[in-house]
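Pasting two entries for a bug report.
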Amino acid sequence: MLLFPIGTDRRRRGPPWITWALIAANCYVYFFLQGTPASSNFELVFARFRWWMPITYMFAHGDLMHLVGNMLFLWVFGPHAEDALGRGRFVLLYFSAGLGSAALHVVSSYAFYPDELAMGLLGASGAIMGVVSLFVLRFHGVLVRFFVWFILPYVFQVRALWVGIAFFLFDFGLALINIGTEGAGGVAHWAHVGGFIVGGIWAWAMRLPEEGTHEIKRGEVRDLIAAGAWRSAAALLEERIAARPDDAELHRDAAACYEMLRGMSDRAARHWNQHLRLLLLHGHQEEALDRFRKLTHSFRPGDFDPAVLMRLGAAAESQDNHELALAAWLACASAHPSAPQAPQAALRAANLLERRGSEERAARVLAMIEERWPESEAALAASRHRRNSRRLDGDRRAT
C-alpha cells in the first residue's frame, strides 16, 4: 500500500523561499556530492564523530526513494510552517529539530542498542518531523490531503491534528517495540520522535496552538454570520474576546453582530470603541479614522469613549484632516463634559479653529471652556489666550 500527503486546504501567504532552498540543498547533496569520497563523512556516526556531522547528516539520503519521500513531506508542510514562523525562525526550527533528532537518536542508541552507535544516521526526516509537528499544532484545523493506493488509488482528507497524532504514535510506538532489538528495519524512529518533540516545543513556546484554535473559532463565526445567526455569532465572539481582548478584528465582528440585534446598540458601541482604540494603539490610524467617519452616521457622539475621541482627533490632525479632528474633539467636549479629557479637547479644537481662520468660532469655544471648566488648566490657557487676543485687537485699532 502507498500512502503519502499531497497537499492541504490552506492557502499559503507567499512564496516559501526557505522551503524551496532546503529542498534544493537536499537534492544537490544527493545528486552531486554523495558520490564523492568525502560523502562517507556526511552521515552521523557516533563512533567516529566529527563536528560537522550533526548538520551534514540532514542533507544526506540513503537512496532516491528516501530523498523523494522526505522532500514530499517538506514540500507539503514546510510552506505553512514557514508562514507561521517567518523565514528566519523557520530556519532555526529546521536545524534545531535536526539537532534534537540526532541527539535523541544517539541517546536512545546508547541506552537500548549500543551496537548501532557504529552505524550511520542520515536523512532529513528528523528535521522535517519538527516541521510537521509545528504545522499540526499551529494549523490543527486544516485538512490534509493524502493519496493512497490500496487495490485502487484514491484521495482522502483528514484534519491536521489527527495526522500529527498518527505520525507521532506510529514512530513512538515502533521505537518502544524495538527497544532491545537490533534497530527498527533501518528506520530511526527515535530520531523522528526527537524532531517531533523539538517542533512541539517551538509551537507551544510561541503559543501557536492557540492561534490555530482562534482560526477554527473564527471560521465558525463566519459560518454563523453567513447564516444570519447574529446572536449565536456574538456569543461565540464574546468567548473569543475573553481569551483575546486585544484583537481588534474580534471587536469589529462583535460590534457588527450587535448592530443587527434590536436593543444591542450599547454593546455595539462598546465594541466599536475597543476596535478604534486598538487600531490607534497599533498604528492603523487611517483605518481608524475611516471607520470613525462611517460610524458617525449611525452613532451619537456620546456613544464614543472620550479617550478614544481624543486620540482620533490627534490622529486626524496629524493627517491634516481638520474637519474630522474638530468633530472628534468637539464631540468629546460636548458629549462628555464631566470627562477629564473634555476641557483639553475643547482647547485643542479652539486652537485648530483659530489656525484655520475661524476666529469667532474659536472665541466661542474658549468662552465655553472658561464657563464650563473654570478650575481647569485649559480654562487658564483659554483666559490667557483671550486676553492676548483682545490686546492684539486693541493694538491693531490703535495703529
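Entry 2 (this is the one that rendered wrong in the viewer):
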Amino acid sequence: MSLLPFLDIIFGTIGIFIVTFALQNIAEVEDGIPPGIDSIVTCVGGDRLTAHWPDGSTGPAVSPERSIELLQALAGDGRPFRSLVLALGGNCHEARMAFLDGFQRYLDISARSVTADDKPPTGLMLELYPLGDGGDAAALLEEWRKGGGK
C-alpha cells in the first residue's frame, strides 16, 4: 500500500513520455522556405543583390548600398511584398549588413508615409536564408516557383 504513490508517479511519467514521443513523430519539420513568401532577394557573389518574383522574373543586380532602392522597386512594381526572404551565400556578410540597414531605413520611410496618409500599416516580414553557392540559389528559386511562390 505504501508503494501506490510511487507507482502513480512512475506511470504518470511513462504516460507523459509516450504522449511526447507520439507528438514528435506527428510534427515533422519540412525543409525549404515557409509558404507565403512574395519575393526573394539573393546574394551569391558577395557584392550583388538580385530580386526574384514567383512568376520567374528577376530584377537587375544592384550593389548592397542600393538596397533601399531595390526594396522601393519591389514595393512599387505593382507586386507589393509583405514577406521577403534574403538568401545569402557564405561571402555575403557586408551585403547582409548593408541590406539590413537599407531594410530598416525602408521601414522608417514607409512608417512616415503611412502615418501621413492615415492608412493602416502593412506587416512586413524579412527572413534570412543561408545559401552555399549559386547552385543552391537556383534550387531554392526553382522549389519556390514550383508552388507559385506560396
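Dev reply: Rendering is fixed now. As a check, the viewer should reflect this: The helical segments are 4-26, 67-75, 93-117, 134-146.
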